[in-house]
Amino acid sequence: MRVSLQWLRELVSCDEPVQELAERLSIAGFEVEAIDDLASQAEGVVVGYVEDRQPHPDADRLSVCQLRVSPPGSDQPLLQVVCGAANVRAGIHVPVALVGAHLSAVDLTIQASELRGVASTGMICSLKELGLADSSDGIAVLDELLETVPPLGAPVAAALGLDDQVLELAITANRPDGLSMLGIAREVAALTGGQLSLPPAAPVIPAEPLPVEPASAAAIETGGLFSLTALTGVRVEPSPAWLQRRLERAGLRPINNVVDITNLVMLETGQPLHAFDQGRLAVLGGRPANAAADSVADPADLGLRSAHAAEAFEALDGSSHQLSPEALVVTYANQPIALAGVIGGAGTAVQPDTETLWLEAAMFSAEAVRRSARSVGLRTDASARFEKGLPLEVTLLAADRAVQLLQNLAGARVQGRWLHQRPHQPADPMRLRRDALHNLLGPVLVDGQEEDLAEGRIEQTLTALGCNLQADEEGWLVTVPPSRSMDLTREVDLIEEVARLVGYDHFASHLPDPIEPGGLEAGQQAERWLRQALCHAGLQETCAFSLVPAQGLVEHSPRLGLTNPLLTDYGHLRDSLLDELLLAARRNLQASMPGFWAFEIGRVFQIESDSLIERSELAGVLCGERRSELWSSAGKGRSPDYFEARGVLQQALATLKIPCEDRATSHHPLLHPGRAAELLVEGRVAGWFGQLHPERAEALDLPEATHLFQLALIPLLSAATRRNRWQPAFAPFATVPASERDLALVVPDSVTAAQLLSAIRKAGKPLLESAELIDRYQGSQVEAGNASQAFRLRYRDARRTLTESEVEQAHTKILGALQKQFGAARRS
Predict the structure, then answer these.
(1) What does the pLDDT look like over 753-801, one tens digit per residue?
(2) How far apart (Å, rounded) are the C-alpha atoms in residues 687 and 73?
């Protein structure tokens, strides 16, 4: 946003030097990226008078001019300047760049020189060389440009409007009011305490309902509002010099008075407007373009819809587009006449012969305008404002302001207005509690003393922003102006505005009381240890994007899509960590890597009962061989089988003493139906582990021995941080020997080792010290439907050495419990 300092000072009394103002704006959140001093573009350029012009003796297209750059009667000699412009002649006033002047617009420093043997001590300038818009091919003739020519030798900058300074502001997405001069003026008034002098409100034009089809009405209500104001008797001509200068300083090119007024109002209020030639619309609708009452454009033929596929559209800038259904178009007689909120069409643009207008003032949704602009690859001043979001209340005020200017500068007469808008309820006032403000911000420093911020300063700051305050016992009821309704929605927003505009550096610093040392919570520390344990087990940690395509590897419920994604392929929130891990495994194996063992801890997002649920999960992939363990297999690569891969995960979980049991499952679409298990933590399902389904492995070009796991993170951390596991307990070293026994059992193959171990530990108390599975066999030597499982049991009494009979008694007790609970038989 380019802000003219002269225009700004017309709206708010502010005499601060531009550098100080720029610093205050930057600290307050409107970063000033550059200060453009227009006077520097004409520094060293003065008014001169061409006393004589003669042709160059050695060049047909050059002229030798004698210039007077001092008042008549002075003893300063004439300057001799060689000029190549065709329109130079004796008897005219011109801008003359003296020797030593630097023209920053063309990066040229004037030096005394010779051109074809003739000395030249200066340069006669064109408007382009002074950084101004120039439609001519020659030098600037001041007699034609100015009503009154300044005295000879006077600086030419002020006469040509080069006596201003322009601030380049970076406007953040949450401050659409910063894209208007009125918004910046209110900000400066709040920062400096200056008095606002805003233009008076224009007369309100009454409106009648806009007769549109239901589909168009629905599209209008999505944005909020659409209005048309019919004007007749319009004179299209060049804009006044003051209007052209304001547009040029804002970086816009003057076109004609009608278009320039719509652009001026956009700069002033932030609301884009567009003017249609009503006669050309009538021709588009099949009516002759004449002044007859039944030949003008009919508002009933207007519409708002999505573009048809490959629908042709020619824009104002001369570009041609093949539209897609993502584009939202304004239509007349079902023909596109504008890309809504982006750019108008060339066929209905205002031309020099235009006499009747439709002035469009509308509010389109930010998402629709963003999609439209992106679909055609255009970004305009209008689309930039709509994309950031505009308040609905400003739209008709801007239209009234534009009509007032068109009446004053173009002789327009109002014929009528049509309006369609969705029902709109004014926002309720917000409560601002003084206690909440003082508690959150703390005291300010006044002459080195800490004091609560004065209520008068609070009221002055918010009033300058356009807020209406009504005091009560607790504080104030604050009515936010429409221009700030997008970002001031909560009490804390108002408090932040007060702090920002008063200045954070004015508030006293306070340390927490009492001061306590910081540190990680138990859950945070457990998560760090879990990451380290997984890395020690041989896995690498990865970090993938949270934004993913619409369709994953497994068909779950629909993924939650973003309203306005930057890229189509990254337009939805992920609901699983495994998709990217599997794709990363494939990429690594295709790059000739022998294996890919990795995990990720991150957030996933799912929709449940029309609400967004956000969870933390742990997921991992063990694919191929682990290169760091080739020494254990005599240098030969080998992929782990199901039990070895499961042991890798168990190794990591055991580091945090997380109890984890397996329960066979066969219903997960990603997993092998016979090599998958649900993982139970503290008796509840927390995730699963299994081998990738062969069909999935083939589709992803991954080896069959690819194993996956996925666990909810919260149950893991809760189990790890239980007091009996988290707090280490002292246990003395054993001073007596242990006695070990192996127990081989034949049990139904549906009985898991975890079930057997749980029963063994329960029945073996108090002498059983440990139990572990050492072998599992299922084959020809065991009856079909059964499996052999062997366990190693260790018995010990910390006070004395156990006798053989005591060990045998405990061993028999365990066997009896297993026989009773699972029908186990001891294998001989």
Answers:
(1) 888 998 999 999 999 999 999 998 988 888 888 999 999 999 999 889 9
(2) 99
Q: Using 50, 70 and 90 to split pLDDT, how confident is the model at 385?
A: very high
| 3-class SS of residue 376 | helix
pLDDT for residue 293 is more than 50: no
How many other CB atoms are there within 10 angstroms of residue 183's CB atom? 24
Tokens of 675: 């090599």
Candidates 293, 355, 328, 330; CA nearest to 420 is 330
Tell me whether residue 594 is exposed, middle or buried, using C-beta atoms within 10 angstroms of its C-beta: 0 to 12, 13 to 18, 19 or more: middle
Closest alpha carbon to 498 in 514, 475, 482, 519: 475
Taken as a whole, the chain contains a residue count of 828
Between CA 117 and CA 751 the distance in angstroms is: 109
From the list 101, 58, 99, the residue with the least C-alpha distance to 80 is 99
Tell me how far apart the alpha carbons of residues 812 and 793 are, in angstroms, rounded to a whole number: 12
Q: What is the dihedral of CA 567, 569, 575, 578, to 10 degrees?
A: -130
d(CA 158, CA 42): 9
Element (H, E) at 359: strand 357-363
Residue pointed to by tokens 């970002």: 487
Contact 82, 117 (CB under 8 A): no
Nearest to 595 by CA among 646, 650, 675, 538: 538
> What would the two tokens of residue 777 be?
């066999």
Place of tokens 């800038």: 317
C-alpha to C-alpha distance for 54 and 164, rounded to whole angstroms: 37
Assigned token pair, 257: 């008075």
H helix or E strand, kind and range, residue 181: helix 181-192
Q: State the pLDDT confidence band at 412, using cuts at 50, 70 and 90.
A: very high
Instruction: Supply 380's token pair.
Output: 């305009």
The helix (H) or strand (E) run that includes residue 773 is strand 768-777
Which residues have CB under 8 Å from 92's CB, separation 6+?
A: 49, 50, 141, 142, 143
Give, for 435, the enclosing helix (H) or strand (E): helix 434-441
389/171 Cα distance (integer angstroms): 13
Q: Quote the distance between the C-alpha of residue 186 and its chain's center.
A: 25
**CA distance linking residue 346 with residue 348, whole number of Å:** 6
Q: How far apart are CA 165 and CA 35, in angstroms?
A: 7
Distance, C-alpha 457 to centroid of its chain: 34
Give which of 657, 642, 813 is closest to 729, Cα–Cα: 657
What confidence category does residue 289 fall into, taking pLDDT thresholds of 50, 70 and 90?
low
661-688 pLDDT, tens digit per residue, is 888 888 888 999 989 999 999 989 999 9
* In 233-356, beta strands by DSSP E: 274-277, 302-306, 311-314, 320-323, 328-332, 335-339, 343-344
- Tokens 């029945």, residue? 763
Q: What is the pLDDT of residue 418?
A: 94
62 by DSSP, 3-state: which?
coil
pLDDT in tens, 95-135: 999 999 999 888 899 999 999 889 999 999 999 898 887 76
ω into 514 cis (within 30 of 0): yes
DSSP secondary structure code for residue 58 in this structure: T
